[in-house]
């Protein structure tokens, strides 16, 4: 009897194994893009330009395009170009200013603008004001130590080609003209300073993404399916991928065979990367950070402020939590936000599960995550302080940037969810990394984007990096080189080292996108 039972079980196991191995595809495509956010939309648009014959399938688990991190209300900051974000220019122990990251981010944003201008010129994006508008970028600080830091930062950056035109002032009346809300009701005895960059912009990445996806849907061979969630990824013997997709409306699953898969699912990317089982993805973990905004509901106040005013972050604060009084243009209307106030949620997506963090922990990443946690006590303390803030404390934080703020003019709204990268480190065991990272399979058949800030603003440059990693041979061909230079006129050139090229590019982009610009002498 026992032998029969064992034989029966072996037959079942062999049958199950054969069934899994020979699992057939319901459909075949060239490219699967997971998530309908700005990253997938950018990559899909670039790949379709490079090779118009490609078949591309885009799967989004929600019923809207750009409903998570790319949505205007979920972004911690828009139009990141390092003009005003002080966390990109930290002060070294010797008192000097580190500015290389600021230059890099600014150049990456210029690359994004080139691509958007190209898409507008080809009729593949809507009227530019629907997604990009001029909003001056300012840094604002108070106190002797912070003012001295900002002056050093200005002295360094104003000499850099991409930051020419930046203004600096400690004069109360000048600052009152630049940012009346911030200075009204403030003591003239307070030591204050600010920098001002007139060519700063506000970008509605939700609108931009929806424009790109709408254009992609019109292309031959492109399929966009909402309410479709990628549940699993399996590598086949021929090097392609079997992508299991669940239709959330019908609860039916399909299997899509794809030559290349991009996981651009925001906070959901980590779990799918783990399911892919590629060696390059082992050891990565994630730490979720949530956020909230104070949103102004008084139109008279909104009308008085036309800038993005960034301050210094608190000790231990993640980059997405740098405080700023922020003018946004959302669906053609001005909005005024302050924050974000950081918090903690175990969700990896705003519309995710509270089990996301627990489910992401594996034997491969538990030690890096524990090590990173032990080394980031200031972040833990900061988040606890933010989570336990009272309404009065939030209002007091706002009053540091808007002294006459009244609670009745503002309401608290939930912002987006971000997942900071935790990665293995030989010395530390694990490190918490602020930024974005492309993780790709050795053969280039799969890539995932992990991380957060600066994210969307540098999406085009990030996707160029991905294309070079995953399609090195194609990117080296004359055809792809030519098309890359058509999309990105400064492709493989350093804007930060070529004044004539900067002037040419900024003039062309600004003319197409309807933005301000000035010629660098």
From TrEMBL:
InterPro entries found in the cross-reference section: FAD/NAD-bd_sf, MQO
EC numbers for this chain: 1.1.5.4
Catalytic activity: (S)-malate + a quinone = a quinol + oxaloacetate
Pathway(s) per entry: Carbohydrate metabolism; tricarboxylic acid cycle; oxaloacetate from (S)-malate (quinone route): step 1/1
Cofactor(s) the protein needs: FAD
Pfam families, alphabetized: Mqo (PF06039)
Enzyme class name: oxidoreductase
Residue ranges of the TM segments: none
Keywords in alphabetical order: FAD, Flavoprotein, Oxidoreductase, Tricarboxylic acid cycle
Matching Gene3D superfamilies: D-Amino Acid Oxidase, subunit A, domain 2, FAD/NAD(P)-binding domain
UniProt similarity note: Belongs to the MQO family.
Protein name (Swiss-Prot/TrEMBL): Probable malate:quinone oxidoreductase
Species, as recorded: Pedobacter psychrotolerans
């Amino acid at each position: 009897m026992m032998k029969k039972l064992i034989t029966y079980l072996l037959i079942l196991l062999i049958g199950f194994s054969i069934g899994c191995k020979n699992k057939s595809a319901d459909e075949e495509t060239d490219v699967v893009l997971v998530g309908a956010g700005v990253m997938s939309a950018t990559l899909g648009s670039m790949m379709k330009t490079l090779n118009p014959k490609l078949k591309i399938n885009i799967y989004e688990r929600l019923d809207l395009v750009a409903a998570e991190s790319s949505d205007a209300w979920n972004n911690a900051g828009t139009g990141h170009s390092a003009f005003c974000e002080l966390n990109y220019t930290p002060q070294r122990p010797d008192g000097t200013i580190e500015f290389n990251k600021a230059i890099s981010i600014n150049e990456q944003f210029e690359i994004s603008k080139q691509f958007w201008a190209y898409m507008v010129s080809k009729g593949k994006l809507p009227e530019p004001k629907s997604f990009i508008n001029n909003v001056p970028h300012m840094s604002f600080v108070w106190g002797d130590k912070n003012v001295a830091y900002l002056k050093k930062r200005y002295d360094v950056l104003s000499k850099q080609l991409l930051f020419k035109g930046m203004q600096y002032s400690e004069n109360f009346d000048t600052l009152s003209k630049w940012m009346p809300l911030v200075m009204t009701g403030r003591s003239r005895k307070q030591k204050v300073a600010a920098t001002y960059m007139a060519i700063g912009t506000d970008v509605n990445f939700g609108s931009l993404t929806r424009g790109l996806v709408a254009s992609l849907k019109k292309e031959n061979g492109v399929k966009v399916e909402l309410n479709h969630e990628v549940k699993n990824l399996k590598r086949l013997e021929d090097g392609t991928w079997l992508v299991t997709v669940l239709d959330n409306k019908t609860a039916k699953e399909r299997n899509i065979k794809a030559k290349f898969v991009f996981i651009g699912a925001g906070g959901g990317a980590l779990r799918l990367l783990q399911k892919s089982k590629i060696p390059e993805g082992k050891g990565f973990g994630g730490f979720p950070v949530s956020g909230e905004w104070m949103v102004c509901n008084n139109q008279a106040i909104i009308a008085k402020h036309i800038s993005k005013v960034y301050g210094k972050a608190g000790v231990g604060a993640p980059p997405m939590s740098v405080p700023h009084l922020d003018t946004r243009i959302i669906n053609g209307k001005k909005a005024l936000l302050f924050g974000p106030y950081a918090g903690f949620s175990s969700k990896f997506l705003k519309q995710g599960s509270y089990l996301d963090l627990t489910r992401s922990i594996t034997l491969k990443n538990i030690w890096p995550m524990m090590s990173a946690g032990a080394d980031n006590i200031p972040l833990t303390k900061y988040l606890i302080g933010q989570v336990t803030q009272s309404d009065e404390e939030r209002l007091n934080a706002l009053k540091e940037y808007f002294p006459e703020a009244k609670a009745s003019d503002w309401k608290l709204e939930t912002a987006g969810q971000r997942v900071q990268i935790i990665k293995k480190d030989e010395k530390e065991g694990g490190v918490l990394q602020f930024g974005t990272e492309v993780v790709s399979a050795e053969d280039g058949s799969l890539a995932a984007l992990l991380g957060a800030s600066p994210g969307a603003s540098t999406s085009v440059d990030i996707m160029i990096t991905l294309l070079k990693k995953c399609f090195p041979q194609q990117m080296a061909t004359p055809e792809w080189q030519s098309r890359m230079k058509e999309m990105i006129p400064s492709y493989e050139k350093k804007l930060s080292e070529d004044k004539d090229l900067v002037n040419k590019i900024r003039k062309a982009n600004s003319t197409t996108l309807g933005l301000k610009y000035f010629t660098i002498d």
